[in-house]
Design goal:
The chain is an alpha+beta fold. The chain has four helices and twelve strands. The protein starts with a strand and ends with a helix. The chain binds cytidine-5'-diphosphate.
Length: 237
Amino acid sequence: MKLLENGKRLDGRALDEIRDVKIETGVLKRAAGSAYLEWGNNKVLAGVYYPREMHPKFMRDPTKAVLRCTYNMAPFSVDDRKRPGPDRRSQEISKILSEALSSVVLLEDYPDAGIDVSVEILQADAGTRCAGLTAAAVAIADAGIPMRDLVSSCAAGKIDGEIAVDLMKDEDNYGDSDVPLAILPRKKEVVLLQMDGKMTKEEFKKAYKLAFDGAMKVYEVQKAALLSSMDSVEGGE
Ligand code: CDP
C-alpha cells in the first residue's frame, strides 16, 4: 500500500504534522479525576481512583503509594472484535504506562495508598498507548494528585522510507517501524521509549526529534485543558 503521494500522507498531513488532539477534563462524576481525549480517530477515557488503602494488602508499601494503571480496549474499539479482558499486549501497555506515571507522581506523599488509573480505549486508530498515557496524566492532574511534571506522549515512525510523526492505523499497519515516546515536558526527561521494527541510527534520531516535538505540541493541549477546567471552577460553573 502506497502511503505517500507527493510528500503528503493518506490523510493529507505533512510528515511533521500530528493529528488533531482534543482533551476535556472532569468528565466522570465519581472518579477523583478524569479526562476524555480524542486524538485523530482515537477515543480514550481515563479515570483515577485514589487515595485509598492499597488492596491487596501484600502490595502495600509503607514508604509510598503504589500506582497501578490498567489499559483496556473495548470490544468495539477495533475492526475485528477485541476479545474482552486482559491479553499480553494490554498487560504490557498497562505496565509501561504504570511505570511512566509512577515516575512523575509524588508517591511518597501517600504511604500505604493505592492509586488506580483506568485507561479505556473506546476507539483505536494506532498510537493508543501515547493517547492513553496523555489522557491518564491529565486525569491524575485533574484529581489534584501532586506531580513533578505532566507526561506528554507522541510516536514517530517510518513510512515508504520517510520518517513521519504520529502514525495512524494504515501507516502503522503498512509502515516499517514505529517509535512511541513519552516525556516530562518541562524537565525534558524521557519516561517511555519503545521501538517496533527497524531504523538506522540517523532515521532513529529524526524519529526521536519528531516524536519529541509532537509530544511538546500535545503538552500545550493538556495544559489548555487543565487551565480551562480551573477557570470554570473559579468562575463557579
Ligand atoms: O495503539 P498503539 O499504536 O500504541 O499499539 P500497537 O500495538 O502498535 O497497535 C496499533 C494499532 O493496531 C492500535 O491502535 C489499533 O488500532 C490496532 N489494533 C487492533 O486493531 N486490534 C488489536 N487487538 C490491537 C491493536
